[in-house]
Amino acid sequence: MTSLASVLADPARAAVLQVAPEASVADVERAVIAAGGRFALVESEGAADKAAVMESFAEGLDLPDWFGRNLDALVDSLNDVGVDDAPTVVLWDRPDAFEAGDPEQYAQVLDILAERAGDLRLPRLVALIRRELRVG
Question: Domain 15-130 has what CATH class?
Answer without folding.
Answer: alpha beta
